[in-house]
Amino acid sequence: MSEETVEDFRRRAHEWIRANLRPASGSTQTLRGGGDEQDLAEVAREREVQRMLFDAGFAGICVPTEYGGQGLTHAHQRAFNDELVGYEYPARLQVPPMTPCMAVLLEFGTEEQKKLHVPGILKGEEIWMQLLSEPSGGSDVAGALTSAVREGDEWVLNGSKIWTSGAWWANWGLVLARTNWDVPKHRGLTVFMLPLDAPGVTVHRIEMLNGNREFCQEFLSDVRVPDTDRVGDVDDGWTVGVRWMFHERMQYNSPYVTRPTGAAREGEKGSILNVVRDAGRLQDPVARELAGEALELGLVTEALNHRVARGIMSGTMTDQAAAVGRLLMCTSLARQSTLAFQIAGAAGGAWNDDDGQAAERGIDYLMRQTASIGGGTTEMARNVIAERVLGMPREPSLDRNVPFRDVPRGSARS
Amino acid sequence: MLLQLSSDQEFFRETTAKFLSDQAPVDALRRLRDEPAGYDADFWRRGAELGWTSLLVSEEHGGGSISGSGIVDLAIVAHEFGAHAAPGPLITSNVVAAALDATGGHPEVLAGLLDGTAVATWCIDESGRRLLDVDLAIRVDGDSLVISGVKRPVEAAGQASHLLVTGRTGDGLTQVLVPAETSGVSVTPMNSVDLTRRFGAVSFDDVRVPLDAAVGEAGAARPQVEHQFHLALALANAESVGAMQTAFDLTVQWGFDRYSFGRPLASYQALKHRYADMKSWLEGGHAIADEGAEALAGGDPRASMLLSAGKAFIGEYGGELMHDCVQLHGGLGVTYEHDIHLYLRRQTVNRCLYGTPSEHKQRLADLAEQQEEARGKADS
Fold it and tell me: At A166, phi and psi to the nearest 5?
């Protein structure tokens, strides 16, 4: 079968996007946002756009055709992303739904599981989230305490998961649970899939310091999951987990993600020059230099993402090198939000509706560390780089080669 | 440096690396500190035979590239120059060769550059001016061009047989190729942080040259000057990343070899995290240097922003990396005996030339603004 060339595909995408999608609204979730109703309306529109992509043959560009995808290459996905600049796209349906969730399903799901769920994901009917972190664990995800106990053809899950984005409007979750307490921590885990409206699942929304309420905590109380919804082998969940976290670190480099090129560079909020302009500092060389630094960091992190993606794809870099891209991206994002805050001047602390893009830079600044925490802290990324990329000695740990039930545990707020 | 070199490029890289290791080992670099030229003429001539000065020159003028993309090939050489802190006027000779190739004049001078029997340099920077803002005047007077002003710092000013001078003619820019011995040209040697690169301040005191000394059209050289500037940025970026790579590699090895309190340095988490940060800066430097060079080679309009982003990032984060490498070596790191300063010096001097990080950040804002204006016009 001859595959559509990237250039033909690009032309087709170019025309279709312009004929069917709305220009990007540039709206962002803010303190003054429209609240839950607006969020739900935006989710509904994103599902609709995902369906339009599917019907037009632009969903799952790198997903095999037998699961509803297009079976094309990363180059096709990149061309699509290039053409998407300036247009709406299903932003909430990318990370974590497409990667890591769908990526994990494609890699570890049974044929039946993939045929049952992947087409639904690509049509925007199923939105998947990850139930990975726990209140007790933070970055130590292999220390999961959520338990799954087998009862005949079913598993009974109990415990709590946290930092699940959008669980209050999503449909499905991937869950990492402990199935064996008598072996060391990495060897007693199993992955399951779970409908978020299953009996026994309670979703509690967490309010972040900026007023955002997207993140959730789930309480699982005698939740019954059929064994057919297990992903990978029993007690072999860490094999899945390692790849799960790899797909998570790939983020916007993943071939499964649709996102306008440069979105990372421009930020979802548009050009940093707008902040300079709206702060009334276009003639101020100090402000211009700060803006230039933000532009610099955006270009460098984007270039590094390309380099790492190419390196991993061609085998010249280990999968673990994704942590290198992630570390620079996260430290740069924090710096960029400080830069915008600095440019905004006093409007960073107090602003009104006339301040345009200079408004709310203070809120972003308060949330500056978010990217360096979510998806594994940058401290974890630094460990990965030092130990797995540079080959330095591993940190001593007290939980290796000990049955998990004997590992000391601290208390945690839950 | 590029992750995937072609086999020809890899062979070329290895040849250059081996030549530099053999002919310019670290001990030799230390001795060159006291040599007036900072490099050996025979070393340069033999390097030119390997192709160091012919990659930006078309085949019709006696040059030729390895991959069809001379800029990328030359960036590979520049990377190795940085990795070995190698002596020799690589950037300036190539910028002048590219300028002469593009305009087709002065074939005898170009021939000397190609075979390495002569070197030339580019006089662009001036004291106290903004980036690419030129004050030196070149006026047309009958059948002569008259040059007056001062350029500094000029690399290899005392070694160059010819000076490519960029000056102002009315509102436009003019470039002139001036033989170094021309009456009215005087070179005052300057000090430098680099062990082997030499710099001078060059005064042009109503220097008179014939009209055909012009390189390109008088008053219309701005696009050519910008291209030369971009070439210099691509090469300086590649060279600095090469220097960062060697310094980092030395420091990683040190982390494994050096024990304190019964453990290797590389086993301390506090230090491992600093190595991780350095690795992210190093790979970011590689990535942006490569994208800039490739964009320039491919005529991509994004090249100017990528090159400036690289110059700012590699200058600033490269400096942080270098000083962390020094810090992790402790007192040894600030001795003349240890090699680390050779690479620190090269990265430091490159940070200052062709625009500082601060100037390139401002240039990025300028370029982004121009891009927005162009987009605004295209939409209306």
Answer: 60, 20
Q: Is B266 on the interface with A (CB under 8 A)?
A: yes
CB-CB neighbours of B100 under 10 Å:
26
Q: Are strands A201-205 and A154-165 parallel, antiparallel or unpaired?
A: unpaired
Nearest to B367 by CA among B306, B310, B315: B306
pLDDT (tens digit per residue) in A282-319: 999 999 999 999 999 999 999 999 999 899 989 999 98
- What domains are there in chain B, each with its CATH number? 7-118 (1.10.540.10), 122-213 (2.40.110.10), 222-379 (1.20.140.10)
* A334 at interface of B, judged by CB pairs closer than 8 A: no
A237: nearest Cα among A171, A297, A175, A299:
A175
Question: Which of B1, B6, B253, B280 has the most A C-beta neighbours within 10 Å, making it the best mutation to test the interface with A?
Answer: B280
Domains of chain A in start order, with CATH, are: 16-95+112-126 (1.10.540), 129-241 (2.40.110.10), 262-389 (1.20.140.10)
Which tokens belong to A51?
Answer: 């369906």
Chain B hits for A293, Cβ within 8 Å = 312, 361
Contact in structure between B188 and B179 (CB atoms under 8 Å): no
pLDDT tens-digit series, residues B212-266: 999 999 999 999 999 999 999 999 999 999 999 999 999 999 999 999 999 999 9
The encoded tokens of residue B61 equal: 């003028």
Site of tokens 């095999």: A64
Question: Is the backbone peptide bond immediately before B189 cis, with ω within 30 degrees of 0?
Answer: no
- Beta-carbon contacts of A296 under 8 Å, excluding residues fewer than 6 positions away, are B308, B309, B312, B313, B360, B361, B364
Q: Give the pLDDT score at A32.
A: 47
Q: DSSP letter for A320, please.
A: G
3-state secondary structure of B249: helix
> Which residues share a beta bridge with A175?
A131, A192
pTM listed for this prediction:
0.91
pLDDT, tens digit (0-9, with 9 covering 90-100), for B327-354: 999 999 999 999 999 999 999 999 999 9
CA angle B168, B170, B173 (to 5 degrees): 35
pLDDT at A364: 94
CB of A99 closer than 8 Å to CB of A256: yes
Q: Is B239 exposed, middle or buried (0-12, 13-18, 19+ CB in 10 A)?
A: buried
